[in-house]
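Exercise 7 asks you to align residues with tokens for two separate proteins.
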Amino acid sequence: MAFMTANYVARETGWAMRGWGHGDRATSERFRSPQTFAGRFEALLKDVRPLGFETIDLWGVHLHPEWATDPTLDLAGATDVVSGRAAARKLIRDGAIGTVRAVYAEANWGRIESWHPSPQGLYGVGAVVDVGIYPLTILTAMFGPARRVVAYGTILERERITIDHATFLLETPDFNVALVELESGVVVRLTATFWVRAGKTGRPRRAGAFAAHVVEILDAIARSASDGAAVEVGSHFEPPSPLEWAGS
């Protein structure tokens, strides 16, 4: 299990984040300087280690392809930051767990109004976009692009109450289930909800196509859930190469 450093994005705004864009910009500005990156990255790891995690899932703005340099990539690659997803990808590619035919992905973020001071924005974009994007990105990187999506979404509890006791109403589904058929034949069952809590990668050209493909999957999930019909996924990308240590 890995700690997702996205949990610390709001910290760079003094825990007063006004949406992910605000937090991402603040975090990127703090980490982008090559002169201070090493110290700040090590401080990030020191905050995570006492929580009991041996690996982290590094949020993009902590090491963004637009400003990452060889030294900063080497620094990150020399730590345990990459071992979670990269190790899993190596095991799958080496056939250590046999042929993968189906993947069950859970992104259940719980009632975020119980802790987030301004949850309306996150509820507005919905759980698929806010948290479902993480397993979709990981799985399409491992198994390749998607080709077809069938989805269902509903609002389980429309009226929510903030920690300041203000009432607001949901307009976007807080419970989503999607079936995503990948080009490789792997089938993904993704659940994304706001209900139950239960080396070197800087390749901007590929990253752009990859990111666009994941966004198309998100849109297909939303349209399928709304229209009640399957939605074809047309874009393509070249899966990113594994990190050097995981490629052997």
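Second protein for Exercise 7:
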Amino acid sequence: MRGLVGFLIVCLCSAPALGAEPEKPAATVARGGKKGALKVDPNDIVGTGKKRFSQKDEELIIRDFFKDRRDGFYVDAGCAFPRSYSTTFYLESRLGWSGIGIDAVPSYAEGWKKLRPRGKFVNYLVTDRSGEEDTFYEADYAPISSIHERIAGPKHKTVKVPTITLNDLLEQNGVEKVDFVSMDIEGAQLAALRAFDIEKYRPELLCVEVWLPDQKEIVAYFEKHGYERIVDYAKYDWVNWYFAPKDHPRLAEIAARENARPKPTPGPSAAAPAASATPAASAIPDESATPATTP
């Protein structure tokens, strides 16, 4: 989602630097708008759960796919904040996962060290080659920093960041198995995928922010390697695309469940959801705060 937000650069002129304002907690209202706890069905977390940390419903979708499995391993490329808007904080803090967070913005390192004891933060630009330095546009509102200057908005600084491929990163850290990959790297997704040996590591689920110009090539990449898009998740998240091996048993389970849901009553045609504007100053996360303890 952060990538689409970047296009609304007119909203960025007054955005403070990373960590400058108090955090606005992720929504804790259950589906249907009713306050209070609802019993979460482990076979339908996306339908009965409530998000806590991710920007949209990514967290629920990921939990749903893995059915709240414990002790997995994640790779979070473009990880940004350690907790707010994170697709992997719930996995680590509630389910005991460990993993690696990668971001080209070095200022996230301190927060990761404090809030992500089972995660390792590394400062790289994930792309299709290692051992070089590429130009990177670090925005005043750090989450929309990008390899594309137009995405970083009018307030940014130009820096050089070391590059790395996912293959080299995983090899250097002795990783042999990856369960989940999150990829939100503001325009570098296709290059990063091309240099990733997905058949070697065979992640069960990938969450990729897919930009319109790259859609066909990204789908072709996954099809070539025996993966398919989980289209049933599109109604819960229209920005990120989710991919899993074609023979994964969860695909049939998810499809059957979604087909069995009551169909919504037809009503007046509604416009497609618009991209959220950049958070107001009061909503910029402060990752120095003590993490929530609500399960």
